[in-house]
Amino acid sequence: MRILLTLLTIAVLVLAVWAMYRGWTRRAQRQAEGLRGWPAPPAEVGPALLGPTTGFYIGTTMAGNWQDRVTVGDIGHRATAELSLHEAGVLLARQGCSDLWVPRNALVEVRTDNKLAGKVMTRDGLLVLRWRVASEEVDSGFRADDKTTYPEWLHALAHEASSGSDQDKNGDIA
Q: What pTM, to 2 d.p., does this model score?
């Protein structure tokens, strides 16, 4: 009887792992349709206008849903990273993963937040960039080692976000 229960438990665990894997791959297929043309960093990004700021790439989610992690390629993988602003866009150089490039003309909003991609932080613990990829908007989160740099980033990127946005009293895009 004990062997039967052990085999049943192993079978249930294998089924659960298989279901999680299948859900992850289906999400990646669904998102790949709407996120075609993920921008690659240019060969030469030029000198950094701001940064690099060291920290941790939290992840990218579909805009408006802080738990809907983007799983296309390795975009969903968390990694140690450096954030830097360049003439043509923002570069997130991630260790062990591909770099993430946000073209300046794709920026929609920049803000601080406390949650993204299943990670909850203290108040204003994350710098979040909302930007367009193809026809979709996504939110990419970065947790800096030195959070006192956030006002510099907010100020520098607020002017880059799409026209028509108003700034609130904190310098965030409304």
A: 0.73
